[in-house]
Amino acid sequence: MFTKRVALVVIAGCLLTGCRSDRIQTYPAQGLVLFDDGQPVKNGTIELESVEFKTTASGQIREDGTFVLGTYTPNDGAASGKHRVIIVQLIVSDGVTKHQKDHGRAVPTQYSRYETSGLTVEIQPQKQNSLTLKLQSKRT
C-alpha cells in the first residue's frame, strides 16, 4: 500500500511539473527594451537564442518597452547561459490608413538578424533575471 502511494505521488508530481527529460531547464526572465535616448521600444518581439543549447526564448514587447520571456510556454523563462538577441517588428503602413495607436519608432533592421544585431545577454540560474537592452537609434 505504501509503495502505491509513493508511485501515485511521483506520477502526480510529474504531471504537475512535467517530466519531459528533453526540455532544458528554464529560469524566469523579464526586461525592458529602450532606444539610446531612453525612449521605450513600443512594439515587436524579442527573441533570444541560447549559444549552448540552441533553444530560443521569446516575448512580446509591450508599449512601455517591457517583456517577459518564454521558451516552452509563455512566461516560463529562458535557458541559462549566454544568448544572442534579436528584436523583430512588423509595422505596416500603407500611407492611407490613419492609425489610432502610436506604434513608436522603428527598430533599425540590423537588430532583426542574429548575425548583425550585436546584442547578447546572460541568463543566470536564479529565481528572476531582469534584463535591460539599449538599442542605438542609428547603427554605423
In what range is the share of β-strand residues? 25-35%
What is the CATH superfamily?
Immunoglobulins
Please identify, by name, the CATH architecture.
Answer: Sandwich
Termini gap: 70 Å
The proportion of residues forming helix, as a percent range, comes to 10-25%
Secondary structure class reads: alpha+beta
CATH class group: Mainly Beta
Overall mean pLDDT stands at 87
How are the strands ordered across the major sheet? 4-3-7-8
Q: Counting H and I runs of at least 4 residues, what is the number of helices?
A: 2
What is the number of E strands? Answer: 9
What does the radius of gyration come to? 19 Å
Output the CATH topology.
Immunoglobulin-like
Q: What's the assembly state of these chains?
A: single chain
Counted up, domains total 1
Largest sheet: 4 strands, antiparallel
General form? elongated
Which parts are unreliable, with pLDDT below 50 for 5 consecutive residues or more? Answer: none
Q: What letter string, H or E per element, gives the SSE order?
A: HEEEEEEEHEE
Account of the protein in words:
It is a single chain. Helices cover 14% and strands 32% of the residues. The chain is an alpha+beta fold and 140 residues long. The protein has one domain: Immunoglobulins (Immunoglobulin-like, Sandwich), CATH 2.60.40. The strands form three sheets. It has a four-stranded antiparallel beta sheet, with no helix packed on it. A three-stranded mixed beta sheet has the order 5-2-9, with no helix packed on it. It is elongated and about 50 Å long. The termini are far apart.
